[in-house]
Amino acid sequence: MRHEPEGWDIRREFFRSSYLLGAPWDTGRPQRAFVELWEAGEISGEVLDVGCGFAENALFLAAQGLRVCGVDMMEPAISRARDAAYARGLTAEFHMGNALMLPSLGRHFDTVIDSALLHVFEPGDRQAFAASLASVLRPGGRYHALYFREGPRAISPEALRAAFGEGWRLRTLREAHYEQTDPEGAPAWLASLERVAS
């Protein structure tokens, strides 16, 4: 399994600069799509926020009383997430880590949320990402991914099914909205998949 996503060296600098100088996804609030999933009872148990960034989604869920862990490769993001949890009096864990090597967390989860990480991966890395997720998601657990529906990073429904094949069941796939500092945001897909026991 590749240890870092294809082409990551260039994107690492983009994300580091974005986190330090102002990221378009830094809205200061959780994505409405994940709030709605929580309200619908679709997020439960121990939760992993993969590619958590500044972790507004994770912090929202921690405030609801869930046990939450966030992981991201960017130190500025993890540092700010920890500071925010402390300032808000919330209990949540945040770790620097690689989404392709999630077993290194040494934990298993009932739910995984993904806010705009999936579309960062090149097609050749998506199956490795799916395998990494499967290694930490308990059978019957849910993976909810919010990712771009349009533009150069878009992932088609067919490409999603190709990446998440054996060991996964696609429960729902619907059009959604990805919120950004730009009020228009971006057209997105919201996919919910279930980890099937092998």
Put the structure in a nutshell:
With 198 residues, the chain is α/β, with parallel strands linked by helices.
Top keywords for this entry?
single chain; 198 residues; alpha/beta; Rossmann fold; seven-stranded mixed sheet; 6 helices; 7 strands
Overall description:
- The chain is of the alpha/beta class and 198 residues long.
- It has one domain (8-195): Rossmann fold, CATH 3.40.50.150.
- The protein is built from 6 helices and 7 strands; from the N terminus they run ααβαβαββαβαββ.
- The chain has helices at residues 8-21, 32-39, 56-63, 75-87, 123-136, 157-163; strands at 46-50, 67-72, 93-96, 109-115, 137-148, 168-178, 186-195.
- Helix 3 (56-63) links the parallel strand 1 (46-50) and strand 2.
- The mean pLDDT is 90.
